[in-house]
Amino acid sequence: xxxxxxxxxxxxxxxxxxxxxxxxxxxxxxxxxxxxxxxxxxxxxxxxxxxxxxxxxxxxxxxxxxxxxxxxxxxxxxxxxxxxxxxxxxxxxxxxxxxxxxxxxxxxxxxxxxxxxxxxxxxxxxxxxxxxxxxxxxxxxxxxxxxxxxxxxxxxxxxxxxxxxxxxxxxxxxx
Length: 175
Prior knowledge:
The protein is an alpha+beta fold and 175 residues long. It is built from 5 helices and 6 strands; from the N terminus they run H-H-H-H-E-E-H-E-E-E-E. It has a 6-stranded mixed sheet. A hairpin with a 2-residue loop joins strand 5 and strand 6. It is globular and about 55 Å long.
């Protein structure tokens, strides 16, 4: 199994996405057809891209609008924010100064057999416009987001990533 898919599956299980079987969940566990899986993965990539656009357009409010009430934000150093209020409190400083923007690009998506859970992964950058100049990349890395379908909408249930150090002068776009 691909490493990202294995990690995503482990995270889904750790979050308790599995519940006691019912007639509905047993039917949902049947393997998805290839076309249904592909369609779901395209939906996830589109949701992640829309999440990015909402965040660029509305900052913290756009960012928060995609999180489920029971969402978790994790950082590689062990920090965990549980629930929308904790995530908002943790992430608000990133958006507070108006000079900092978060950009990301979803590269891959996967869908669980239940069709209600999936993941996206990609690259991100944090850019800061110093003294009104062209924004410089101050950090970049890779992320993994776990999603849950609620009705017809996808919501983030877990977001994590790993950041690599970048100097203010490194704006080459390499990752």
